[in-house]
């Protein structure tokens, strides 16, 4: 597969253990029992839907979008980069589709919308894995793939969670799809319940804005709807970039002349632990800096191994940057 589970690979090199690639199509039975703890583990879970499956070539015009959307428009720069990469090297990673539940001879995308769009634009077939799955498995696979890519903004994930809830899915399914615990999903849904969908649509995906600032905006927007409408109606509002539109609205509702500073919000650390729990790795971001801490019984030896192999790790990183893994 195109995506590399790098940290798991490092541990396997030390222990000789191999990760099974024969995971079932729907191995997660409940968020409370099997919550995914890291993006690496989630990437493996998403990739399990494609492992060992026969890849076919489909006419992209016979493929329809998912019954639940997860994006608020494409990043034009990223889309163009993906298009040029596929034009030059071809489609590295297959998409996942299912036979269309309501239209014979057609297919429905589980994940891979951008690759289908690009195939149409380039006049090519799209490489795909076809799996006959139900709606529940569909939304979990779609959510896991997007979470593994880690390029959906908070509000896009929140909107996806609310759409799933509106379709009747319970919090265990939503939590599994988004790799989030019940409290995080509850906060997502509360934000998009307080802020009208029309307002979120005018702000856009706001890729740089995290959960706490959206919570702050939701608390203000619910009390100042007239002011919200006035700010959204400003002639220059639509000319701003999505992050700037968020800042403009939040600053206006706070009565300040400049965007609210983010200094008080500390990003949560990401963690990774192998099955034997012999080592734990935490990654904390602060602006452009990233701090990695390695602890546990094998922490010292693993940290030394990483230090001794930085050249190879960086080379693997550079190669991964050139691999087409997007939707």
Determine the CATH superfamily of the domain at 6-152: Conserved hypothetical protein from pyrococcus furiosus pfu- 392566-001, ParB domain
For the termini, the CA-CA separation is: 14 Å
The name of the CATH topology of the domain at 6-152 is: Conserved hypothetical protein from pyrococcus furiosus pfu- 392566-001, ParB domain
Radius of gyration from the CA trace? 21 Å
SSE ordering: HHHEEHEEHEHHHHHHHHEEEHH
Parts with pLDDT < 50 across at least 5 consecutive residues: 1-39, 257-265
General shape: globular
Q: Mean pLDDT, rounded to whole units? A: 79
Percent of sequence in beta strands: 5-15%
What is the CATH first-level class name of the domain at 6-152?
A: Alpha Beta
Helix amount: 40-55%
What is the quaternary state of this protein?
single chain
Per DSSP E runs of 2 or more residues, the count of β-strands stands at 8
Number of helices: 15
Largest sheet at a glance? 5 strands, mixed
| CATH architecture grouping of the domain at 6-152 | Alpha-Beta Complex
Based on helices, strands and strand pairing, what is the structural class?
A: alpha/beta
Strand order of the largest sheet: 1-5-3-4-2
């Amino acid at each position: 597969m195109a995506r590399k589970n790098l940290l798991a690979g490092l541990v396997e090199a030390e222990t000789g253990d191999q990760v099974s690639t024969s995971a079932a199509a729907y191995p997660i039975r409940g968020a409370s029992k099997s919550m995914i703890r890291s993006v690496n583990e989630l990437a493996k879970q998403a990739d399990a839907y494609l492992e060992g499956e026969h890849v076919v070539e489909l006419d992209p015009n016979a493929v329809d979008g998912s019954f639940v959307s997860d994006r608020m428009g494409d990043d034009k720069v990223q889309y163009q980069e993906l298009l040029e990469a596929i034009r030059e090297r071809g489609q590295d990673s297959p998409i996942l589709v299912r036979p269309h539940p309501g239209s014979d001879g057609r297919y429905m995308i589980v994940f891979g919308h951008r690759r289908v769009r690009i195939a149409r634009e380039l006049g090519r077939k799209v490489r795909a894995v076809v799996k006959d799955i139900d709606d529940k498995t569909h939304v979990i696979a779609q959510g896991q793939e997007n979470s593994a890519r880690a390029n959906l903004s908070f509000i896009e994930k929140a909107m996806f969670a609310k759409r799933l809830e509106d379709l009747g899915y319970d919090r265990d399914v939503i939590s599994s799809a988004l790799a989030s615990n019940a409290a995080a999903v509850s906060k997502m849904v509360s934000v998009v319940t307080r802020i009208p969908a029309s307002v979120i649509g005018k702000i856009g995906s706001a890729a740089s804005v995290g959960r706490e600032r959206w919570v702050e905006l939701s608390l203000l927007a619910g009390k100042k709807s007239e002011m919200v409408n006035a700010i959204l109606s400003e002639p220059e509002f639509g000319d701003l970039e999505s992050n700037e539109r968020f800042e403009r609205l939040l600053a206006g509702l706070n009565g300040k002349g400049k965007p609210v500073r983010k200094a008080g919000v500390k990003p949560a650390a990401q963690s990774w632990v192998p099955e034997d729990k012999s080592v734990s790795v935490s990654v904390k971001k602060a602006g452009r800096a990233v701090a990695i801490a390695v602890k546990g019984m094998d922490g010292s030896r693993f940290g030394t191994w990483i230090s001794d192999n930085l050249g190879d790790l960086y080379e693997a990183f550079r190669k991964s940057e050139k691999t087409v893994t997007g939707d």
